């Protein structure tokens, strides 16, 4: 890679970093404010989760007790919680994608360690060989 290309790449990285740094505080505030709600197909269970996927609230309509079925209730709760978590992840990715590529955010958010360390290894190899990507 010639000197001009290396400078162009360094300028690109610097610009991306500055954009990320400038928006990081606002992005963090918006991400940590994410709350997602999901309601079961039958409408009897509503779940609210925060940005971490932690359950903040579960509302159960008393009509659910007209047909007591603990197995069905457990399945309904589980699927509704999963849908709320998926919506939380979608909302966070939407916010983060204004500053970082959505795919990259999801990789780090999901802690896909093999992918993360693989990318780092590639970057270290490139630097050690005098190549920049």
UniProtKB/TrEMBL annotation:
Name used for this protein in its record: YbaB/EbfC family nucleoid-associated protein
Q: Which InterPro entries match?
A: YbaB-like_sf (IPR036894), YbaB/EbfC (IPR004401)
Superkingdom, taxonomy of origin: Bacteria
**Any Pfam family:** YbaB_DNA_bd
Species = Micromonospora sonneratiae
